[in-house]
Amino acid sequence: MRRIILVPVVLSVAAIAVVAATRAFVEEATPPQKPAMLSVPPEGVSTEGASPSVRFLAASGTPIAAGEETSETAVVSFPDGSSVSVIVGWIRPRPPPLHPLERLSDGYSKLVQLAHAGDGAAARTLHRELSKCQRAHIDERSLNSAIDRLRRQRSLQLGSNLHARSVGPGEDLEVIAESDLRGPYRYCEGITIEQRMEAAEWARRAAAAGDYLGLQDWARSLGNTEAALQAWQSAWDRGYMSALPPLARLYASGALSSTGHEPDHVRAYAYKYINFKLMEAKYGVEPMAGQINMLASVESSLNHTGSFLTPLQTQQAIKIAKHLLETNQYCCRGSW
Q1: Cβ contacts of 231 within 8 Å, gap of 6 or more
Q2: Residue 182, SS3?
Q3: SS (H, E, C) 186-234
Q4: Strands 83-91 and 69-77
Q5: What Å distances lie between residue 197 and 129, 137, 194, 283, 290, CA to CA?
Q6: 62 — phi, psi (to 5°)?
Q7: Are the C-beta atoms of residues 76 and 278 closer than 8 Å to each other?
């Protein structure tokens, strides 16, 4: 039985450093102990009257604390008549270790201390908050210049090195000046440029510490690159279902150099197919209106990718999908 956990990630010197950091993350992020594997549903559990595609077998429904799990058992069926039994579960994400701060500098040292001690949530918080500070002005001179530019040119310059955006005629300039310029400046005051530039490293540390939100942040920060594909693949190897859509997108875009940067629609379809079947496993029995729309959207995306495939390639992709699901002993953690 598979274990699936669902939850409400030009070769310059910098690029080489990113790939090296990705490899370091892969080495550090060792998957948890393998669960027992069963090939049939538990005895005494009825599947009568359930969906022909996915039959829910049992559910614990037990409330969980932060970072703990609850689960349901389901059967995912394939067009050839075969099926894979899985345990569909949820992990409640760990909250930030500190209450919201008026100024990041008030809790910065504590967050750094916790992150260095292996607290993934602290490292993730540092990444996200420092990323915000990268969009804040570093000193009053830069801030005042941005406010003046906003008033004179209706142009919003968030950070010194960021592109400005035009402000529409219906937008209140003073409200924008407070929410987008003065507020972030006050929150980030006292955080140095060097500290702000460490945001990506904290994402890597959060991922290496096993924080699933931090893992996604790290992979997402790598963009549309082969390093990103490696990071998302590592996330999927650890069972994170949230890696499936990015993997499909990256294969469809040709991010893998071994393919000559040509789109691999077969592989993209395989990952989209897994994503659809797992979503169907969660919502397919009695989906609510919003879930029906979500399923329809995912299925539409799957069909779009399928339009690039021959019938034989589609069969090949589904076989790959089944193999990926069967052989991933940690599947699935993450979120849609």
Answers
A1: 9, 22, 25, 26, 207, 215, 218, 219, 222
A2: helix
A3: HHHCCCCHHHHCCHHHHHHHHHHCCCHHHHHHHHHHCCCCHHHHHHHHH
A4: antiparallel
A5: 11, 13, 5, 41, 39
A6: -80, 130
A7: yes
Q: In a structure prediction context, what are the per-residue pLDDT tens digits for the chain, which is 336 residues long?
A: 555 444 433 333 344 444 445 444 444 444 443 332 222 223 333 333 332 233 222 223 332 233 545 566 667 789 999 988 777 666 666 777 877 889 999 999 999 999 999 999 999 999 999 999 999 999 999 999 999 999 999 999 997 667 789 999 989 999 999 999 999 999 999 999 999 999 999 999 999 998 888 889 999 999 988 889 999 998 888 888 889 999 999 999 887 766 667 899 999 999 999 999 988 877 767 788 888 888 999 999 999 999 999 999 999 999 999 999 889 887 776 665
Q: Which two tokens stand for residue 146?
A: 């941005």
Q: Are 81 and 96 in contact (CB under 8 A)?
A: no
What are 315's two structure tokens? 């069969």
Q: Domain locations in the chain?
A: 1-94+223-336, 105-196
Say if CB 219 and CB 228 are below 8 A apart: yes
**Tokens (6 digits) for 45:** 């559990």
Task: Specify the pTM.
Answer: 0.71
**Could you say which DSSP state residue 93 is in?**
P
Q: How far apart are CA 295 and CA 280, in angstroms?
A: 7
Q: How far is CA 105 from CA 44, 188, 190, 206, in A?
A: 57, 7, 6, 20
